[in-house]
Amino acid sequence: MNSARETESSARDEAAREHARLAAAMAHGDREALGQLYDLLAKPLYSLALRVTGDTSEAQDVVQDVFVQLWHKAADYDPVRGSYFSWAATLTRNRSLDRIRMRKRRSEIIQTSAADIGPAGDANLGSDDALWLREKATAVRAALRVLPPEQRQAIELAFFGGLTQQEISAHLGDPLGTVKARIRRGLLRLREALSNRL
Amino acid sequence: MIREIHQELAALYAVGALDGAERSGFEQLCAGDPELQHLADELCETSAALALTSAQVEPPPGLKRAVLAAIEGRDQAQSRPPAGPIEFFPRILPWASAAGFAFAAMWFGSRANTFRAEAEAMRTQRDLAEVAYRMSQAQLGERTLLAEQMIAELGQRLRRTEDLSRLKITALASLLGNTLETKAIAVWDADQQEGLLSVEKLPAVAFEQDYQIWVIDPQYPIPVDGGVFKPDGEGRATLTFRGDKPIANASAFAISLEKRGGVPKAEGPLVLLGRL
């Protein structure tokens, strides 16, 4: 068990170092580094964009925009603030939500966000995928499963649906204070469950 | 130690549930609090990991090529070399000049139209931005007003609470057989050096008599005179009173029956007594 954890931790650290190295190379104009980074991150970022937008064409546009942005802003990445994957995933989420907001009115987004946020579904990660990605995805899914459904729902409506706290409260018909507390408790619990695993 | 309300803001920030103004406010808060910034970074890392709960789908094979081409195209556009010098052909110079003028006129005409259209579009954008700015300003004004009202209300509540907390209240008990049904409440405000007495069903007194209230302060050997009063026909009286000396620590109130106008030192029977 310890050995498995050590392997996992080592793969994760190695991946983080590799991402940071590639980002630094991109900052110096290394196009090959961009190609390598694409091979490592395109699948999870595309999957995220697809889940948020629900449209393959939009998801492709988002991913293209994100990688162009990663290329031009490579020098802005600060490893102290978090992992490169986290930075890229946040960019992808924000870009995806911008796309939805361009084509839908706010009221439509709020009304349909619960339906639009698809279930987590199967990880669909095989041996071809990097070890860090498989391990990380498994850990996050396991941690999310143990959250109470109302905490998970509030977090997912915010993260994947792009709803503000007030919109979540109105959408669920729950008091704002309850929504805030659910998000706080849920996220702190996730952080605890994933400590040393991200 | 990070307060719960800040934890809450950090969590809402990390999942993107704060609106624009709230987000900016929180970022400013973090700028002055490294511990909070660290928590926010950790929670952002946690929430970003949620991306991996999506069903993993392979991107289309052509996407990588499109990404690389997009970067190549932009970079080329940014680093395109300037055009070389125009070659000089003396024999066709007049024709070339005329054609050049004609072409330039057409080109400038076309560019002028384009610029006009672009200027129009920019004007529209500017107008829209101005409207959005005014709306934001109005919203901000409303929020500021609301916040000021809330602060004022909270201040009033706090003052009321502080006022109440410094008051001393006592119910005075009967010491005589004919005042068993009397109800008397006295309140003392040490800061204001003032008291309020309210009595009901106090027996009437003769013309040549008054009730006199006394404040008992251990620093004085005898009770301090608080003034005289007479109840109305139904035995009711409400009066504010002050000691005729400064009161440092009011420990009790007493009411005695004295001759009309009161006395400097209690002589008559004690009617009511209440300890603080």
Short description:
Chain A has helices at residues 2-27, 31-53, 56-72, 84-103, 106-116, 131-145, 149-159, 165-172, 176-194.
Largest sheet of chain A: none
Structural class of chain B: alpha+beta
- Kindly estimate the percentage of residues of chain B that lie in beta strands according to DSSP: 15-25%
Could you say which overall geometry of chain B the principal axes of the C-alpha atoms support?
elongated
Walkthrough of the structure:
The complex is a heterodimer of chains A (198) and B (276). By secondary structure, chain A is mainly alpha-helical. Chain A contains nine helices and no strands. In chain A, helix 7 (149-159) packs across helix 9 (176-194) and helix 8 (165-172) packs across helix 9 (176-194). Residues 114-119 of chain A have low confidence and may be disordered. Chain B has 276 residues and is an alpha+beta fold. Helices cover 46% and strands 20% of the residues of chain B. Chain B has an eight-stranded antiparallel sheet. Mean pLDDT of chain B is 84; it is low at 80-88. In chain B, helix 1 (4-14) packs across helix 3 and helix 2 (20-31) crosses helix 3.
